[in-house]
Amino acid sequence: MSKILVQKFGGTSVGDPERIKRVAARIKSYYEKGYQLVVVVSAMGHTTDELVDLAGKIAKNPPKREMDMLLSTGEQISIALLAMALHDIEIPALSFTGGQVNIVTDGNFSNARIESIDTKRLIAELDKKQVCIVAGFQGIDENQNITTLGRGGSDTTAVALAAALKAKECEIYTDVDGVYTTDPNKVEGARKLNQISYDEMLELASLGAGVLHSRAVEFAKKYGVVIHVKSSFNHNEGTKVVSENEIMEKITVTGVTLKSDDARMTVADIPDKPGIAAEIFGALADKKINIDVIVQSSSRPAGSTGKDRHNTIAFTLPIAAIGEAKSVIETLTKKWGAGSISTDENIAIVSAVGIGMKSHTGVAASMFKALADNNINIEMISTSEIKISCVIAKDRGKDALRLVHAVFGLDKTA
Ligand code: ADP
Ligand code: ASP
Ligand code: MG
To answer: In 3D, which of 33, 28, 35, 74 has the Cα closest to residue 162?
Structure first.
């Protein structure tokens, strides 16, 4: 069994000098148990948000390369401070940027993907009994540009390192005790899960459960890395993210999420013929815009022939991507000589996720009924083998989250 353990500490966990010292003390206790430690840290507290605001005061549309250069500095502060805190308690430690430990990514600034990690340097230092502290959320592309992995991306740095080093486990220390049935800061009755499968966690992370970066879960699934989410403020047992066949009890609904930073874009009056949807979603994919729910409806007046048939396609996308998506689709509507685009930011997506859905019927009906009984209108629906998502009005989002959480018996107060 590998003696390498990867531990990641999030922004709140290293939010001030006292907390950094507490993290150092925890690392020391593992070091003294004989583990070889690779520690990934995020920027302190809200540093990354503050850097984003700072850039906004300088330029309306800062170059993405410079934005990554700026944002990567947050993590550089915390790795150096943590290394100092460890030295202070007589634990040998070295801090490294992503580039220094060869975390090579593609050149997609602000949302780069890790392509390879060369672990030679890390292994050499681990063998010399150093604790290796690595800046999360950053890498370097083939042209030596600093890149960042997308907000929340330090989780992905940690899991990717755990995979590359064939570590025993990847521990993600955060400000809650583990993965809950829903965000414990939004629903009081949320319960902590002891374990969850990669597929469920991936759906939850993509649908708004901010506790893990979805790409970290993708990596973990692909390379079989066990993720252990724990609190950095206590020693409680956390949540293990593992493969489905290790899950004893296949609960119908494991978790519920609410996503409030998506909008709906509706493209109306477009030709009803093969290839139109492929053009729209192909163009959006080329821009790497993430689409969640898609609904198409066609109007076919009686006796109509192909030519006078029109379609409407509506889909959800991140609010931040509206501008780019609009300009991409405008190019298409101009080409077709048809179509109009409208957007609605007043939506939220509530989703229920569980591997037990594969073998249970009536799950969607229960969710729809809970919403209907409380007069919440469902505007769009999307399902997969293990999830159901409903688009609803944004101002009913919190109610919907609470209701769906309760209807599946997830509330601990129920
Ligand atoms: P870190 O800075 O440690 O990476 P994050 O803020 O990224 O921390 O993630 C932890 C937060 O995720 C929690 O404070 C909680 O509000 C939120 N969260 C959302 N959904 C869940 C969930 N299902 N289980 C636990 N936490 C969740
Ligand atoms: N500091 C980055 C962020 O705030 C990365 C992370 O914390 O995971 O998004
Ligand atoms: Mg996070």
So the answer is: 35
Give domain 4-175's CATH superfamily.
Answer: Acetylglutamate kinase-like (3.40.1160.10)
DSSP string, 244-292: GGG-SS--S--EEEEE-SEEEEEEEEEE-STTHHHHHHHHHHHTT----
With the most atoms of ligand 2 within 8 angstroms of its CB, the residue from 41, 137, 156, 159 to mutate is: 137
pLDDT at position 305: 63
Atom of ligand 2 nearest to the CA of 75: 1
- Over residues 289-313, the pLDDT tens digits come to 989 899 998 776 666 666 667 899 9
pLDDT, tens only, 95-109: 999 999 999 999 999
Which residue in this structure is represented by tokens 């022939």?
305
Query: pLDDT tens digits, residue range 107-117?
Result: 999 999 999 99
Q: Where are the domains of the chain?
A: 4-175
Instruction: List the helix and strand counts (H, then E) for the chain.
Output: 11, 20
pTM for this model (two decimals) = 0.94
